[in-house]
């Protein structure tokens, strides 16, 4: 049976699924076939040649060396939407915290602890320093209308806000789930210019890194508040600090603070708690465990970030999976090897995504080592697995 190596604290409900199916789950495993992790920044040298699949129990996978995995035919999974509600709730809290100055107000209240009977009088006298606007009637701008962005949009509408969102790759699922009251921007500037609150919910990648920079900040209202529950690298912290110092930005709420952001009343620094709820942690762990099990035991790919979705029920007791570069004549060469070995294909699925393709082939009998060697020898084939039930 397979071994799964874990990094970070993965919810027991997910690990129990794997243990219940006979997997060995071990944070010290040396030659695991699967890895489950959360925010651990996985290095290529930590991925042994035994690894077939890696499941990120969460949405963002910029801590996994995906290109390296693709080169070696390792399938990387994430758990879309599984922690979206946890993040949404903290985003709403972040808007309220930054608006009503809850953070400096609480700190001040604690600071007068030794003032004895004067405390109630001081509170009434000083409270006006911490007044702040309500969010109802204000405009929330959202960049990225995926699992989290849509939930935030719908909740903000329910709280009486006007919501304008931008997502050039809006999925059908997001469109179905989003309130019709959400206004669709055709470019991000429309969002930046109108937002009283701006929240970003996009993945961090080469195209989005540093997207909130001095140029964007210059387009925003002077008292706008920015919320970043996506990734630290999306925001240019130096530009944010300069805008806060210049009084051209109201506040910055971030789940990804670095040292430069700490110790200020106008920065609400949260230690990456967006998905730290029992519900989100369990949802992510269960989804990650089930996807890894489906892949390791049946070769089915669900919610991969580098390979195409490809799954079908096992029609025979003998299955082959082949990953290959997405170039012409691969299927022909693979099926020829099987035909030459007298192996009959009962069912087959071939899917591709960008530069990679994946084949599930159910055959009528055992596949010998020499057939596997012939398949591996085809130029463009990355990995071959034999699975039998
Ligand atoms: N703070 C936390 O604990 C926490 C938890 C979950 C997710 N996250 C982060 O939030 C991100 C979003 O999570 P999600 O579950 O909503 O992911 P998702 O994949 O469901 O949604 C991301 C959306 O961003 C859109 N997008 C991509 N590039 C864009 C661009 N340049 N401009 C506008 N939209 C763009 C996509 O089309 C997609 O709809 C994750 O990638 C992760 O980094 C953080
Ligand atoms: O595992 C976590 O706590 C954070 C997960 C979050 O950053 C994500 O991208 O899903």
Automatic annotation (TrEMBL):
<comment type="function">
    <text>Catalyzes the reversible oxidation of 3-phospho-D-glycerate to 3-phosphonooxypyruvate, the first step of the phosphorylated L-serine biosynthesis pathway. Also catalyzes the reversible oxidation of 2-hydroxyglutarate to 2-oxoglutarate.</text>
</comment>
<comment type="pathway">
    <text>Amino-acid biosynthesis; L-serine biosynthesis; L-serine from 3-phospho-D-glycerate: step 1/3.</text>
</comment>
<dbReference type="GO" id="GO:0004617">
    <property type="term" value="F:phosphoglycerate dehydrogenase activity"/>
</dbReference>
<dbReference type="InterPro" id="IPR029753">
    <property type="entry name" value="D-isomer_DH_CS"/>
</dbReference>
<dbReference type="InterPro" id="IPR002912">
    <property type="entry name" value="ACT_dom"/>
</dbReference>
<keyword id="KW-0560">Oxidoreductase</keyword>
<feature type="domain" description="ACT">
    <location>
        <begin position="319"/>
        <end position="389"/>
    </location>
</feature>
<keyword id="KW-0520">NAD</keyword>
<dbReference type="GO" id="GO:0051287">
    <property type="term" value="F:NAD binding"/>
</dbReference>
<comment type="similarity">
    <text>Belongs to the D-isomer specific 2-hydroxyacid dehydrogenase family.</text>
</comment>
<dbReference type="InterPro" id="IPR006140">
    <property type="entry name" value="D-isomer_DH_NAD-bd"/>
</dbReference>
<protein>
    <recommendedName>
        <fullName>D-3-phosphoglycerate dehydrogenase</fullName>
        <ecNumber>1.1.1.399</ecNumber>
        <ecNumber>1.1.1.95</ecNumber>
    </recommendedName>
</protein>
<dbReference type="InterPro" id="IPR045865">
    <property type="entry name" value="ACT-like_dom_sf"/>
</dbReference>
<dbReference type="InterPro" id="IPR006139">
    <property type="entry name" value="D-isomer_2_OHA_DH_cat_dom"/>
</dbReference>
<dbReference type="Pfam" id="PF02826">
    <property type="entry name" value="2-Hacid_dh_C"/>
</dbReference>
<dbReference type="InterPro" id="IPR036291">
    <property type="entry name" value="NAD(P)-bd_dom_sf"/>
</dbReference>
<dbReference type="Pfam" id="PF00389">
    <property type="entry name" value="2-Hacid_dh"/>
</dbReference>
<dbReference type="InterPro" id="IPR029752">
    <property type="entry name" value="D-isomer_DH_CS1"/>
</dbReference>
